[in-house]
Design brief:
alpha/beta, Rossmann fold, 2 domains, homodimer, five-stranded parallel beta sheet
C-alpha cells in the first residue's frame, strides 16, 4: 500500500475529539503531508488546518482524501457518501481506516475500476504475500514491543524516528497498523493478513536496505495478550530487530478489555521478547523503555523513570513528557 | 465447517502414492467414514476401498465427494471437472484441500447457490470469527506442539484420541489443519484465518464442554519456525492446554525448507511452550514426547526413547512404532 500525499483530511460531522485521534496523529507526525481539512458542519472537530472545499484542495495539489476518524460500528455514514463520491469523481484517491470497506460502496468501486480513483482500506489486506523466511537482511532495525495493546508502540516508534532524523541519522518509520499506515502513507496492517503470512508481511514492509540507517518498525499487541499474541510473535520474527524498545502504560491493572488476564511484569516481557526474537536475530537487545505515565504527576513520573532505569539497566522515559533522546543516545554511539 | 460423512474418496488420475497422503489418512483414522473410492484411470493410486461410481456411492448413502489428493500447484485439473460437476448435480457435497477453491468453479458455485451441493474448501476460511479472550473454559485439553512443521503433530493427536477412547476415556480429536479437517469432517485451518483471530478460532474449535473428557487438539508449526510461529502461539493460547505433547523428527538438520534456521533443542521447545502456555493456563504441563524415528532402525529408536525419557523425565515414544500408551497412561490416572 502506498497512499499518495499530500492529504485533504476529511472529518465528516464528527464532534467527539477522541474520534479524530487518527487525523490528529497524521497532523502531529506528518504536518507537511496535510494540506487542509474538510468538515461537513460547523460543530465538527477541527484540527486547526486550513478549511478547504474539494475544489480548493484539488487546485492546491491534494492527492488523497483521508477519512481520519473512527466510530463505534466502523460503518461509513450515509451522509458522507456524496462527499466521497464527488472526491473520487474529481480524481482524489480515498483512504480509510474504517471497518467497512470503501470497496463495498458500488459508486466508488466503479470509479476505481475506471482508474479514476484508488481506494485504500488500510484496515484490510488483499494483496498477495510471501511466507516469511527469517533470512538475515541488510540494514538495522528497531521494533517497539509492549506489555499489552495500546501502550504507545506507534507513538514511541514515530518519536524515535523523529529523534534519529533530527540527529542526522537517517531513520524510516515502518507502519504495521492502520493509523501508522495513514500517517506514513504506506505499510501493511499485519493483524489483517492471513495468519500464515504475518512474518512474511513484515519482511515485505522492511526488506533489505542500504539507503538509510534504521528502519523503526511499529509493534502490535503483546506476547502476553491472549487475543493477539500470534500477531506479535510473527511481527517479532519478521522484524528480526537489532534493537527492541519496551512500551508500557503505568497503572494498567490487567490486559486491555480482559479483566481476568494478568499483565506481565517488565522483566517477563523483556525475557519473553528476547527469547523469541533470537530465532531470527541472535544479537537482539533492548535499548530502552517508553512509559505512558499519564496517570502520574510529572515529578512522580520522573522519579519512576529514574528508579526503573536503575533497576533494569536501560534508559526509561515517557516519550510524551521527556522525549526519547536518552534512548536514541544509545543508537548513535 | 462440518462436512457430512460417509465419504466417497475421489483420487482423480493421481499416480504418485505420496500425493494421496490425505486420502490415506482419512482411511487410516476414520475407516467407518469411507464408503468407497472413485478413480478415473486404472493406473490411479488405490486405497484398497470398494470401487464405486457416483451412482453406486449415492445409492449406498455417501454424502460427500472428497478430493483426497495434493499436487504441486494446488490447482484442480480440468479433466476432473466433469466428475465434480456431475457429483454436485447429484446432490453430493464436495470437500477439497487444494489451494484452488471449489468456489472458483462457476458451475459448482451455481449449484451451491441453488442449495443442491455444499462446497468445503478446507484450506480456506471465510466465516466470521470472534477475537480470543483466554477465558478459562470447562473440559480438559491436550495439544500437540513441535520443534518444527511436519513432525507428526496430527498423527500423534489422532493416536492419542484413539488410545484414550480404547481405554474407555471419551476423547475428541479437534482439527486445525486441512488434512485433519477432512479426516474428522470438522475444524478450522487456523493458518488460513485473519491473523487477529488465530486464538479466537481455536476457542471456537474447542469451546466449553462437559459431554466428554478430553479435547485432543492438533498443533501446527512451531514457536521456533520463523515462517509460522505466530500461528503456533495463537493456537497455544487459544487451546489453553492442560497437557502438552512434544513432537519431533529425529535427525532433522534444520527448520523445514530453511537451511539457515536452526532447529531448537527439545528442552528449549519445552521451556518456550510452557512459558507461553501459562498465559492462558497456569497448570499446563508436558505429558510426553512423540518422535518420528523413521531415520533409525527399530532397536536404535527404542534405545533413544529410553535415553531421552530418562533425561527429560517424560514418556518418550514413536507413535507409529511403539504406540502412545505410555503417554495416555499419564492421562488416565
Amino acid at each position: 500500500m502506498r497512499i499518495s500525499q499530500p492529504y485533504l483530511l476529511f472529518l465528516g460531522d464528527v464532534t467527539d475529539p477522541l474520534s479524530a485521534k487518527t487525523a490528529r496523529g497524521i497532523v502531529q507526525w506528518r504536518p507537511e503531508a496535510c494540506l487542509g481539512q474538510l468538515r461537513l458542519t460547523a460543530d465538527t472537530v477541527s484540527l486547526g488546518l486550513s478549511e478547504m472545499t474539494l475544489q480548493q484542495a484539488k487546485q492546491q495539489g491534494a492527492k488523497t482524501l483521508v477519512i481520519g476518524t473512527a466510530n463505534a460500528g466502523g460503518v461509513i455514514p450515509r451522509n458522507w457518501l456524496d462527499t466521497l463520491i464527488s472526491a473520487a469523481n474529481m480524481g482524489f484517491d480515498i483512504a480509510s481506516g474504517m471497518h467497512q470497506r470503501l470497496s463495498e460502496i458500488p459508486e466508488l468501486t466503479e470509479l476505481a475500476n475506471l482508474g479514476i480513483t484508488h481506494l485504500f482500506d488500510v484496515r484490510h489486506y488483499n494483496e498477495r504475500l510471501c511466507v516469511g523466511t527469517g533470512k538475515k537482511r541488510q540494514g538495522m532495525r528497531l521494533l517497539t514491543v509492549g506489555t499489552d495493546c495500546s501502550v504507545g508502540k506507534m507513538f514511541s516508534a514515530l518519536a524515535i524516528e523523529q529523534s534519529l532524523n533530527s540527529r542526522g541519522i537517517n531513520a524510516r518509520f515502518k507502519a504495521t497498523g492502520q493509523t501508522g499506515i495513514l500517517i506514513d502513507g504506506q505499510g501493511i496492517s499485519v493483524d489483517a493478513v492471513v495468519a500464515d503470512f504475518i512474518s512474511g508481511a513484515v519482511e515485505q514492509i522492511s526488506p533489505d536496505f542500504d539507503t538509510h540507517q534504521w528502519d523503526i518498525i511499529e509493534g502490535q499487541g503483546s506476547l502476553f495478550n491472549p487475543s493477539f499474541a500470534g500477531v506479535s510473535l510473527g511481527l517479532l520474527h519478521g522484524a528480526q530487530p537489532d534493537a527492541l524498545v519496551l512500551c508500557h502504560e503505568v497503572g494498567r491493572q490487567h490486559i486491555r478489555n480482559l479483566p481476568h488476564a494478568q499483565l506481565p511484569t517488565l522483566e517477563q516481557t523483556i525475557q519473553a521478547n528476547l527469547l523469541a526474537a533470537r530465532v531470527t536475530n541472535a544479537n537482539v537487545q533492548f535499548v530502552g523503555i517508553c512509559l505512558n505515565t499519564s496517570s502520574l504527576i510529572e515529578s512522580e513520573a520522573k522519579q519512576l523513570c529514574v528508579k526503573w532505569g536503575k533497576e533494569l539497566g536501560l534508559p526509561v522515559t515517557d516519550p510524551v513528557r521527556f522525549g526519547v533522546e536518552t534512548i536514541t543516545d544509545k543508537l548513535t554511539v
